[in-house]
Amino acid sequence: MFMKIIRLKLLLLVVCVFSCKTNNNTSIEMLPEKEVVEEYFGTTVKDSYKYMENLNDTIVLNWYKQQSNYAKNKIDKIHNRNKILKFQNIITNNTSKISNILITNNNLYFYLKNHNDTKELFYREGIHGEEYFLFNPEKHKKGSAINYIAPSWDGSKVAIAMTKDDLEIGNIIVLDVSNKKLYNESINNCWPSALGGIRWLADNSRFTYEYIPVIDKKEKNYLFNTETRLHVLGENPVNDRILFSNKNNPEIEIKEEDFPEVSISNEKSNYIFGSVWGASYYADYYSSSIENINNQKITWKPLFKKEDLIKRFYLEGDYIVYLSAKKAKNFEICRTSLINPNFEDPEILVSEDESSVITDLTLTSKGLFFVKTKNGVEAKLYQFINKNKINNITLPKEAGYINVSSNGNLFPDLRIEIKGWLSDKERYQFNHKTNQFTKEQLAKENGNNDELFDGIIIEEIEIISHDGVKVPLSLIYNKDLELNGQNRVLIKGYGAYGITQKPFLDPYILPWLKEGGIYAMAHVRGGGEKGDFWHKSGYKETKPNTWKDLIACSEYLIHKKYSSSSKTVIYSGSAGGILIGRAITERPDLFAAAIIRVGVLNTLRYEFSPNGKNNTKELGSVQDSIGFKGLLEMDAYQHIEKGVKYPAVYLTAGLNDSRVSVWQPGKFAAKLQAATTSNNPVFLNVDSEGGHGLDTSKNKKNKEIADILSFALWQTGHPDFQLK
């Protein structure tokens, strides 16, 4: 047996005062230590707060409330917190935020627009057509929000995913566009924004979706044994037929934590695809004739395996064009037959570039278009003419990030979205005759923020990490900044799942720069900035490179006099909790403060949390010795030591979080508060009505930004942001 419990030791309840850095007159009752000692492959592991994993423990739940009240009380006493909040409200109210833009083949635009802090559904015929209001979730059901939409191929109907309280998981309803009325049925237990989406069939009267049997996080089988089902409009969802699941398809290896999904590439496709997903870009894929969807059971033919490292693919008749890292760490574009596929020796259309990563591609009737990105921050667009000719397409402006989209290889339309550190997302349509782009603007700007960027410069550099590897580092600051070691720096990073930290107008940039700070993004290993190799270099047993890269970036900024340890703040969230947590437990002397938003901090226990088992694909499992050693090394909670002077820490969590359980930051906060000998505060703010933050309101996000930046400015000694 890989693990055994040796003993349980209940320690006496210790009540002590948690002292803050400045003017702290409030006592916080610490939770008792109840030591559990376990053995994994000959290694002893102690856990004094394991009991906090019980989501029904009223003592712990009350402690969360006490912690949150205390943190909010202190943050509210920081001078000029409201100044940041007011500034944030002004710049976010300057535009009508548009999101979830989807365009049908008959040129109908469907999208969500933020109005009075509610995302409402609209559509228009063509980019210049009149805008029509369709649906307000608040009027349908108070407290509800839209987090996903899927119009039918002809645009006559829209499937809408509804949720509330940042739960993410919710129900699907369907709206008839012509009369703006809802169909009678509501499909519960769905999460299309994360799992499987909603895929309409060509008849515009049926769609596939993924059903979750158990959605209560307190239940053992939470998120297990999901099923892709087929819904027919007007029928009771209880009778929806299962298309793909571990029970329905025992001939295919589908684990209980896997997500079996079905996709349909376009309305004229002769094929349907099944895939078995987890917390990874790569999946096992199967194909079948679209006609088989009418059979009682679909016969699936294996297409490719996750080991083929195929990140994305598109249909071109009976061929597939795909992006793969199997023989190219920076990806290459290949083509093979769908009828007789050969993934070992495919036709290579675009070879790997040693200096840039192929990050996106799409097919149109005018050919193949793709994007190359250097270090995750410098993007360029290309058109494939033939193997000997590739055209570089001139962009309307410099881009740090480009997303390309089309309606498939039967249509000429090519659209791009571009972003930069100092520019919000902009959409353009390409004219194939003139080779020019036309800007697509669905909302009128209410003002101009250009003056806010005056005098700001962007510096893209590479620093040498602990093992000699060059790590990209993005710096944004005022051109008049002096390199005197006295500047405040906010360093963000992530380093997981191969996700690239792309340039975008982070809402933290402007208010931080406004107070004279430096904004930095450390493109650490574990991300995708330098291709699949970069991801695998900060993955499972190589995970230490992730936080060591961050440490190296911080040391560089201090050495070059950009900042100093007393002015350095590091910040991340979710799986980035590993990055920040291990940085401060390995080098607590290097940072003034750390901010960890809904972070993973106790990796040894993560696979036993809701949604944790799926993430073993990225982090590893305690079920084997190598996986255990890797998880122990990246476990920030287990690396907290008593008697160490830790920096100030601000942690957040959500009781409704479907991705990271509240006890991950909760246990870390409890142990850190008991261990640290510094006078630096360790705050835990638990949102009793919030989740991971993906579906929260704009006003709530702005308040959180004001809290976090006020805390960072306070702890780095800004004279205007001290306690009242």
Count of beta strands? 40
Give the CATH superfamily of the domain at 3-90 and 461-715. Answer: Alpha/Beta hydrolase fold, catalytic domain
Q: CATH architecture of the domain at 3-90 and 461-715, please?
A: 3-Layer(aba) Sandwich
Query: Helical residue percent?
Result: 10-25%
Shape: globular
C-alpha-based Rg, rounded: 26 Å
Which structural category fits the helices and strands? Answer: alpha+beta
Mean pLDDT: 93
Number of helices: 11
**Broad CATH class of the domain at 3-90 and 461-715:** Alpha Beta
The low-pLDDT segments are: 1-26
Strand line-up of the largest beta sheet: 33-34-36-35-37-38-39-40
Note the gap between the termini: 56 Å
Profile the largest sheet: 8 strands, mixed
Q: Could you please say which CATH topology of the domain at 3-90 and 461-715 applies here?
A: Rossmann fold
| Beta-strand fraction estimate | 25-35%
